[in-house]
Design brief:
Layout lengths: L1 H21 L18 E3 L13 E4 L9 E2 L5 E3 L2 E4 L1 E2 L26 E5 L4 E4 L12 E2 L17 H57 L3 H11 L8 H4 L11 H6 L2 E3 L6 E3 L12
Antiparallel strand pairs: 1-2, 2-6, 3-4, 4-5, 5-7, 7-8, 8-9, 10-11
């Protein structure tokens, strides 16, 4: 389960990076075989090419600052006032976004790379650094393609750097998520190990504490317990200790009348009664 989660996060991060890298469209020369240097030549229509079937011309937007082009609305590349026909993302060059001019090498064109164009001043152009064709039939015009070409006011911020930056950010996010998962798993294992180690120690400590408590008995409490366990024979009543003992009982009237001795209930002893006649001497 853990490895599956890690693999899923890693695959997601790599997928995002791959998707970002996939946005780097390849720019092709008119021959459909020669690739432009993607380190410098990138699509002018950065947003449009994200849609299926949408293409763009390519100019030098990621080169040195002094050598960068501007994408104009005709699809040409403007480099310090000089117009160039660049590359295109459509390998077949059949898309309207591709400026398919000056590709015939027999007429001074170039099918394997960029080609300089010279404006005639009337909306037409000649191939190369010349205006000789402007008076003839070889001059041509290029329609404005605003829907697929970025205007000349585009920023100098490079497209490739933005793409690489996005890929780096996504890669860092994926790596951070992966490291976070590893940290949580490691912390969980460490916590379980501490719990397993502390449980026997707690049980042993509890047993030792109980043993210590049993040894440290208060002497007074021990004496009380010993006294409670002693034989209670000495504390038994006379009825229990001496079964033959009977308490003194008052004699009946018949016994009193027939016994010449008086009976005292205080000491249960008989007192001899003697009748003596004492002369009255007048004093009590």
């Amino acid at each position: 389960m853990r490895f599956a989660l890690i693999a899923h996060v890693l695959a997601l991060g790599l997928g995002l990076v791959s998707q970002s890298q996939a946005h780097e469209k390849t720019c092709w020369a008119p021959d459909g075989k020669t690739k432009a240097d993607n380190e410098t030549y990138v699509p002018c229509n950065k947003l449009g090419i994200e849609e299926d079937g949408v293409h763009s011309s390519c100019c030098n937007l990621d080169g040195k600052a002094s050598q960068r082009d501007l994408c104009v609305q005709t699809g040409l590349c403007n480099n310090d006032g000089i117009l160039w026909r660049g590359y295109c993302t459509d390998q077949s060059w059949e898309s309207a976004a591709c400026v398919n001019v000056c590709t015939d090498e027999s007429k001074g064109g170039n099918a394997t790379g960029v080609m300089r164009l010279t404006p005639c001043g009337d909306g037409r152009y000649c191939c190369g650094d010349t205006t000789a064709c402007c008076s003839g039939e070889d001059a041509f015009s290029i329609p404005i393609q605003e829907e697929v070409i970025q205007g000349a006011t585009q920023s100098f911020k490079t497209y490739k750097n933005a793409t690489i930056g996005l890929a780096v950010v996504l890669g860092i996010v994926a790596l951070a998520a992966l490291l976070g998962i590893f940290w949580l798993l490691k912390k969980n294992r460490s916590l379980k190990a501490r719990q397993q180690t502390s449980t026997p120690a707690m049980e042993e400590s509890s047993t030792a504490q109980q043993q210590q408590n049993s040894n440290n008995v208060d002497p007074y409490v021990q004496d009380q317990e010993d006294m409670a366990r002693t034989d209670t024979t000495s504390m038994a009543s006379p009825h229990t200790q001496y079964p033959m003992y009977k308490p003194p009982m008052s004699p009946s009237m018949a016994e009193v009348g027939s016994n010449p001795q008086r009976y005292s209930e205080l000491d249960a002893t008989g007192t001899a009664t003697t009748t003596t006649t004492r002369p009255y001497d007048g004093h009590r």
